[in-house]
Design goal:
Elements lengths: L4 E7 L3 H12 L4 E4 L12 E2 L1 H9 L3 H6 L3 E3 L1 E6 L2 E7 L7 E3 L2 H12 L5 E4 L4 E7 L2 E7 L4 E9 L8 H4 L3 E5 L2 E9 L2 H5 L1 E5 L5 E6 L4 E9 L10 H8 L7 H6 L6 E3 L2 E5 L3 E2 L2 E3 L5 E2 L7 H19 L3 H12 L2 H18 L3 H7 L2 H5 L5
Parallel strand pairs: 1-2, 1-11, 2-8, 5-14, 11-20
Antiparallel strand pairs: 3-7, 4-7, 5-6, 9-10, 10-11, 12-18, 13-16, 13-17, 14-15, 15-16, 18-21, 19-20
Helix pairs in contact: 1-4, 1-9, 2-9, 9-10, 11-12
Pfam families: FAD_binding_3
GO molecular function, one term: 3-(3-hydroxyphenyl)propionate hydroxylase activity
Keywords: Membrane, Oxidoreductase, Transmembrane, Transmembrane helix
């Protein structure tokens, strides 16, 4: 029979919620992860950079992820109007990067959670509301009538997190003048050789990289003023891409079989990250423009800090609140720096001079001074 009292209740089973559950379960806390879906989601970030790789390695997760087929990569080649503008070698800055399907990255962590019997996953569990007493959250209610009591409540459930009203958090959201469409195709030599990111002066971009040894990941960015129906026909899309995609002809010839889906693109930042024992994590706290490729790595770093704070203070809500103020809340300034960086990249990529001025290697690999 499932328990109804836990040390920590985590809403959302994405990378932030999963990794926090792993760290807390590893330390012996009773944790429940609540997921409204029937399984863990399969759409999300696919990159681990500097900080995320270090964390996976430190906690013995990296070898498991590589065993699942994750790829270690060194270089991303950047082009503007077909001309190479940067051969960016991550290893020169002390770190490679790793690509893997989102479900494999999260699956590595959730599999590790199974080693800790005090961590429970409840699927098909949607939270209706959180009950508070004198500003302190005490229990949450699920739509199916179940009630969970906990000392700490974590919202790791995305940009429209259920914890925001309880924190009185305001969400700053930034929209962009382009839309992004994603798809998959069979692996091709040019992409297996290097990740390639192409920009054009008229506001398009295309990013191709191997998701594993069999699959090429494709992202196409188009100005928001262009309606999808105007470019969805393969011949029209290929014709336009060929005006600025210069070294991935094997991708273009395979695009006729690709089925694209639209990907929401924005960035956001919560005004505060906690209120006593209710805390936001991951996209509930921040989200970067995907051009940074840093959201997952920073979420892992945040979860590590948050786990340390919870372990030191979950027994006393006032102690917890002070520790959150001194050790977790300052992460917002770090996130703000990367959000601004991603925002500038996303607004200048069509201008090669401005883009090269803004591009900062240490920020791009995820090294930010705290």
């Amino acid at each position: 029979m499932s328990r109804d009292k836990f040390d920590v209740a985590i809403i959302g089973s994405g990378i932030g919620g999963a990794f926090l559950a792993f760290l807390l379960g590893r330390a012996g806390l009773n944790v429940v992860v609540l997921e409204r879906g029937l399984t863990i989601g399969n759409r999300g970030a696919e990159f681990l950079k500097f900080g995320g790789i270090r964390i996976f390695e430190h906690y013995g997760l990296l070898s498991s992820l590589l065993h699942r087929g994750a790829l270690k990569r060194k270089v991303i080649k950047y082009y503007h109007d077909g001309q190479l503008i940067d051969h960016f070698d991550f290893s020169k800055y002390g770190s490679d990067y790793i690509i893997a399907p989102y479900k494999e990255i999260v699956g590595t962590v959730t599999t590790a959670c199974s080693n800790y019997p005090k961590v429970e996953y409840w699927f098909n569990s949607t939270v209706s509301y959180i009950e508070t007493e004198s500003d302190i959250a005490s229990r949450l209610y699920l739509q199916d009538g179940r009630i969970i009591k906990a000392d700490v409540f974590i919202g790791a459930d995305g940009v429209q997190s259920i914890v925001h009203p309880y924190m009185n958090a305001q969400i700053e959201t930034r929209q962009y003048n382009h839309s992004i469409y994603g798809g998959f195709m069979q692996a091709v030599p040019s992409v297996w050789e290097f990740n390639r990111l192409y920009f054009s002066s008229d506001g398009w971009f295309a990013y191709f990289y191997p998701l594993d040894k069999r699959i090429t990941r494709i992202f196409i960015g188009i100005p928001s003023t262009i309606h999808l129906n105007n470019i969805i026909h393969p011949s029209k899309l290929i014709n336009h891409l060929s005006t600025f995609v210069s070294e991935s002809i094997d991708v273009l010839t395979g695009l006729t079989s690709v089925r694209f889906h639209k990907i929401p693109v924005s960035s956001s930042l919560a005004s505060i990250y906690h209120h006593f024992n209710v805390i936001a994590l991951g996209n509930a706290a921040f989200s970067f423009h995907p051009m940074t490729g840093l959201g997952m790595s920073y979420t892992l770093e945040d979860a590590k800090i948050l786990a340390e704070v919870i372990l030191d203070g979950f027994h006393d809500v006032q102690v917890l609140n002070q520790l959150l103020k001194s050790r977790y809340a300052p992460r917002r300034k770090v996130h703000e720096q990367i959000l601004e960086y991603g925002d500038q990249l996303a607004r200048t990529y069509s201008d090669v001079v401005k883009y090269k001025q803004i591009f900062q290697p240490h920020l791009h690999i995820g090294q930010v001074s705290t």
